[in-house]
């Protein structure tokens, strides 16, 4: 069997994806997550936080909620239904950090959870921190001159 024949066989045997339904679910679940974030932000502003602090608190609340749902094995069920609707907001990033930690908790707290927590998100964090240091140095140098 050639590679082309095998490719045709796989495409014939694979179930067809309902793309319209998948896109719709991603759209409304992602929108619901964003609306929840806005509700958090409005609530924190109502409690007296300034706009920037309320936005930070809302982001932290979404991250904590996502990590909690991941730990309770509920986030994966939502993600199966919503697809990319759960991956794009900040909740997807929190899930990518918490999921490996939950998966490897049987290996112990230090080597399992601590060691595997940053397998996916580690490179993103390293790049973000390194970029912020470089940008901070450039900003500091421009202030000197």
What do you see in this structure?
It is a single chain. With 145 residues, the chain is mainly α. It has seven helices and no strands. The radius of gyration is 21 Å and the shape is extended.
Short description:
The protein has 145 residues and is an all-alpha fold.
How many angstroms does the end-to-end distance come to?
68 Å
Strand content bin: under 5%
* Helix share bin: over 70%
Output the structural class. mainly alpha
The count of DSSP E runs of length 2 or more, i.e. the number of strands, is 0
Low-confidence stretches: none
Looking at the structure, what is the overall shape? extended
Mean pLDDT: 83
Number of helices: 7
The helix-strand sequence is HHHHHHH
User: For the report, how would you describe the main beta sheet?
Assistant: none
**Radius of gyration, in angstroms, nearest whole number:** 21 Å
SSE inventory with pairings:
Elements: H1 3-13, H2 19-46, H3 51-71, H4 75-82, H5 90-103, H6 109-116, H7 122-144
Short descriptors:
145 residues; 7 helices
């Amino acid at each position: 069997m050639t590679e082309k024949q095998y490719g045709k066989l796989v495409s014939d045997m694979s179930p067809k994806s309902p793309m319209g339904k998948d896109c719709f679910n991603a759209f409304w679940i992602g929108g619901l997550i964003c609306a929840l974030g806005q509700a958090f932000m409005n609530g924190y502003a109502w409690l007296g936080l300034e706009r920037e602090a309320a936005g930070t608190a809302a982001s932290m609340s979404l991250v904590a909620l996502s990590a909690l749902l991941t730990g309770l094995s509920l986030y994966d069920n939502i993600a199966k239904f919503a697809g990319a609707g759960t991956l794009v907001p900040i909740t997807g990033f929190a899930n990518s950090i918490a999921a490996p930690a939950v998966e490897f908790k049987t290996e112990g707290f230090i080597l399992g959870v601590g060691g595997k927590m940053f397998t996916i998100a580690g490179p993103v964090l390293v790049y973000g921190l390194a970029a912020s240091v470089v940008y901070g140095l450039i900003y500091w140098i421009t202030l000197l001159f």
